[in-house]
Amino acid sequence: MSEDALDAYSRAVSTVARTVTPHVASVRTPVGSGSAVVFTDGLLLTNAHVVGSARSGALTFSDGSESNFSVVGSDPLSDLAVLRAHEGTPEPASLGDADRLVVGQLVVAIGSPLGLAGTVTAGVVSALGRAIPAGRGRNVRMIEDVIQTDAALNPGNSGGALAISSGAVVGINTAVAGIGVGLAVPVNSTTRKIIDALRTDGRVRRAYLGIVGVPAPLPDPVAQRTGQRAGVRLVEVIPGGPADRAGLHARDLVLTVGREPVQDAQGIQRQMLAEVIGVPLPVTVLRHGAMVDVFAVPTELRP
Predict the structure, then answer these.
(1) Of the listed 23, 33, 35, 49, which one is catalytic?
(2) Active site residue 79
(3) Which of 74, 151, 267, 300 has its CA 20 to 30 A from that of 116?
(4) Tens digits of residue pLDDT in 258-298
(5) Is 33 a catalytic residue?
(6) Is 115 inside any structural domain?
(7) What is the C-alpha separation between 50 and 286, in angstroms, rounded?
(8) Residues in contact with 104: Cβ distance below 8 Å, sequence separation at least 6, in sequence order
């Protein structure tokens, strides 16, 4: 890399660090620590796993100012939480749109790894569209469109900012998947809805069908007729659940939900939003070579 190129790279990283670092706090709770980002007056965004079961804690900003906080809402299935600072906070960071990222784009991670507040690392977007599981027990959900980066992340980075060269925060750092592999929850239209729900209700309502499925190819004649190459093979239908009451069975091959084609579990998951709770949802499956239409009425997913 030429000296001029290195200087340009250094200038970009240092500008982002100077812009974003004041908006990132170190988080301490009785159950752990991490980072958080001021995203509007008095409110900060972090990971749900950073606060865990804690309902309060303390914040420290890069200028040394401190504040106690309370947890406004936490959503383990998206690994996001909203905190309210009791004292003043710096101006909010600018939130960007992760859906506009491209592989190879410069990103800068800012957080408090290993308790070292205001730590800055830089790298690129290594991959887009990753998915990681969140939740536990039967309430496991895939966090979609996760950003993969080679910017160094360590314990304590969780909840910190992943920013682009403009200084806009496009992700909340969430996990270290291996050497040189960091992951961040994207800031996009979906996560903005989650953030709004946490701010107003303290939780995120989701619909529940009671099925477990895996991607499976469609038979060639069906694929040619529908233009769809794959569906979701049901491996389990929870007894007494909405899908069971609607007449769905294990081994059914789900083609559409809500009249939208689905090719994996995430395709179904995307539709399990608050607005479909209690609303008849059309589901088309392939069963013994024949198309079968049913209406399932999702219930609310309970913790």
Answers:
(1) 49
(2) yes
(3) 74
(4) 999 999 887 898 888 889 999 999 999 999 999 999 999 99
(5) no
(6) yes
(7) 43
(8) 124, 125
